[in-house]
Amino acid sequence: MASTPTIPSHIKAWVYSEYGNIEETLKFESNIPTPQIKEDEVLIKVVAAALNPVDYKRALGFFKNTDSPLPTVPGYDVAGVVVSVGSEVKKFKVGDEVYGDINENPINNPKSVGSLAEYTAVEEKVLAHKPSNLSFAEAASLPLAIITAYQGLERVEFSAGKSVLVLGGAGGVGSLVIQLAKQVFGASKVAATASTGKLDLLRNLGADLAIDYTKGQLEELEEKFDVVYDTVGQSEIDRALKAVKENGKVVTVAAHGSSSATFVMRISDGTVLEKLEPYLESGKVKPILDPKSPFSFSQTVEAFAYLKTNRAIGKVVIHPIP
Question: Which runs of E-coded beta strand occur in 102-178?
Fold first, then answer.
């Protein structure tokens, strides 16, 4: 019988107590109370966490009306080990290696103690067992981005034989849209945009056509696509609308994208991760970590500053914790 790990009463975490730029407000705390689990939750000893734009947008107060009360430990993506389980938990036991996006709804009362802490309490339904071939850092990079990528393609009823143009193909979501469209949905053609130095990555991920948006190649594109998937949400979207077939669809992760686009706000769901597990375990779909990753726990502020440059390739990950 595995012995129950000793769980401390207080833990280390990164915390902000006011809204503002996360690089300025985020402070290291070594004595915050360990989160208590509810019946449907597990307590995770965090091993790795990934950073996402939603973290610094939340810190700026973008959705303060629906946010949980301050102070806040940020962090949506987690990978770690279960150290305690609630009475209603069925899927997991102490010692299981798990991963997930800990907030079912990203802007409606997200957890006040996120994944940038030694321990976090998470609902069973948003978690899945970590694929055995992935490191904790690789697993932590996936949940929010891969669920967004998958649900966006589902929302526009993407299916085998269709073509897709991915805007921002080298980013966290875009790098997974390329792979899912090709490997899971059976796309007939995948095109993707990136800057000059990232075009080889797009091809390695499975893009049939790599488009250098810095050289006006998007405007010159004569081909039309069944779906345009916008992971960028800036000026590119208007240019890309011209690349959609007459009855085609545009999906965007940007709340203020084009009015003709379908906005996808993911709902975190462990069953999506379970569904994609065979593709991850076989290596058909791969996590992409920025070459600077992983950042150490003490470098979390620098990691956020780097994420905000919008130059990251794939994901920015924090590991080990602490």
Answer: 119-123, 127-129, 163-167
